[in-house]
Amino acid sequence: MKNEIWELIGIIIGDGNLWTDWKGSFRIEVTGDLKKDRAFFLNRVKPLFSKFTKNKIVIRERSNGLRLRVVDKNLFMQLMKLGLKPHLEKLKNLGFLNTLSLNKRRLVLRGLMDTDGSVVLRSNKQVFLEISTKSEFLVNWIKESLEQLGFRVFTTRARNKLGGNLIFRVVTSGKENVDNWINLIGFSNIVKFNRAIEILSGTDKGTVAQPGQLG
User: Fold this and answer.
1) What is the DSSP string of 175-196?
2) 61, burial (CB in 10 Å: exposed 0-12, middle 13-18, buried 19+)
3) Which of 9, 44, 64, 212 sees the fewest Cβ atoms within 10 Å?
4) Which residue range is the domain that position 68 belongs to?
5) What average pLDDT does the structure give for the chain?
């Protein structure tokens, strides 16, 4: 089995899910931003799926975003066997991540950053990498994994202003940590990679981001 499936699992944990219905359909879906994630979906997510399925991979554009869908029972069951759970159970059953080697953890981390991550430039010109999630287990797992890789990290929690749910965030800051991320973990989302490079090189032309804003 190709180790890249762990990057795919990171992507699904971040912005995807497994779905079944009464018709016996076994769907894997990933959603994204219509503008910022188009290149990521076309150049990385779809080709990554194609390594594990011969079935048709459909990307649809809607006013509220992108949706990639593939119907494949074999891939669905393979992801379940590795530990993923469908529907609302996904974030409640992530204990399988604790068994992963550091190399596989790096791939999951890349998928999470490419989907639920942000490259943030604060008003003091400090650069931050952040990953947000509703799962306290996941944020602690990310923190532990990054510390094993030598990163300096901290976590925060806050109430979502819209739904009132707790949102957990793991953060690493400073150009040294961003450079380490590029070298040790990497980005597959070209928008986030380019923003990180622009900030590191001092050529960033974007507006100063607010905490949690995707860049």
Assistant:
1) HHHHHHHHHHT--S-HHHHHHH
2) exposed
3) 64
4) 5-106
5) 90
pTM of the model: 0.90
Q: What is the residue type of 156?
A: T
Q: Are residues 99 and 129 in the same domain?
A: no
Supply the pLDDT for residue 59: 97
- 20 φ/ψ angles, rounded to the nearest 5 degrees: -130, 160
Sheet with 65-71: strands ordered across: 16-20, 26-32, 65-71, 57-62
How far is 127 from 177, CA to CA, in rounded Å?
A: 9
Please give the DSSP secondary-structure letter assigned to residue 174.
S
> Which residue, among 154, 157, 181, has the nearest Cα to 170 in the 3D structure?
154
| Coil, strand or helix at 5 | helix
- pLDDT band of 186, cuts 50, 70, 90: very high
Radius of gyration of the chain (CA): 17
Are 65 and 31 a contacting pair, CB within 8 Å? yes
Mean pLDDT of 21-36: 90
Three-class DSSP category at 79: helix
Under DSSP, the state recorded for 3 is T
Q: Would you say residue 20 lies in a domain?
A: yes
Of 59, 85, 106, which residue constitutes the final position of a domain?
A: 106
Over range 57-79, report the average pLDDT.
94
Instruction: List, in sequence order, every beta strand (DSSP E) within 12-162.
Output: 16-20, 26-32, 57-62, 65-71, 117-121, 127-133, 154-159
Instruction: Give exposure, 178-215, as e/b (b: 16+ Cβ within 10 Å).
Output: bebbeeebebbbebbbebbbbbeeeebeeeebeeeebb
